[in-house]
Known about the structure:
- The protein has one domain (4-171): Porin (Beta Barrel), CATH 2.40.160.20.
- With 173 residues, the chain is an alpha+beta fold.
- The chain contains 1 helix and 8 strands, in the order H-E-E-E-E-E-E-E-E.
Amino acid sequence: MMGLKTLGKEKKSMYKYNLIGKKTILFLGILILFSVNTAMAQMNFGLRAGASVDPDQFHFGAHIISDPFIPNLTFRPNLEIGLGDRVTAIAANLELAFSIPIPQNPFSIYVGAGPALNVYRFDNSFQQDRDTHLGGGFNILFGLEHGNGLFGELKVGTIDSPELKLTIGYTFH
């Protein structure tokens, strides 16, 4: 049987861990907002939503797309929140993408990759039985986008990222 002294240490430890997780999420949000070089002339903002596998979730979020660093290469950081499978996930993805225009067509294909920081909050339906996990990941992505801003994306994740994400979204120009 666990003593009160041990239980008190565990609660303090969980509180400290949760506080670190919240500070990390805040830091990531600020990092994504300011990570794109301010000398760039324009950034485009967009919204996204979709489904993921392992964990099986609905996700939604926002992204920015920088002007190209070199022809067709853009920085596309995004923040996604996943819900479902008794887990809440927050993913901060710092991805680069290379666009391949399709001649005489308003569509282009893009491929990309980048690191991710994932925060998972597990909920076992009891207030005391929650656990938070912070882990890194890496994503490889493939997409099809229209010149008007509509896009579809397939993302394959490794390490602590979801195994697969299917996303649709819109980038405002």
